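Sample pair:
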Amino acid sequence: MIKILHLSFILISLSSFVGRLVLSETRPELLKLKILKIAPHIIDTLLLLSGITLVIQGAWLSTEYSWIIAKITALVFYIGLGVVTMRTRGTKRWLAFAGAMACFVYIGIVAVTKDPFFFI
């Protein structure tokens, strides 16, 4: 059940990020709505809590856990690049967005393979 919730929060979080980017390009005035300012934080908090719950339930910290550290590191980069994406314009925005999506894909692959160096 927690895994399904976690996967749902991932989908909602990614959709929210891309949706806010589209809105910032097409209808930036809508981003001033209170719900669009608060909802992403609630969704991401629930995503993080469900991820922590999965780690605890799976007892993954009692074994080799480099893949969890890799995911957390990539998550920090994803958040940073997401902030840059939402606060800048032009080429810098789109490069940050591409970087954030690359981090997202990396996190997903590491979650499935449990190998932070899957590309080697």
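The chain has two domains: 1-62, 64-120.
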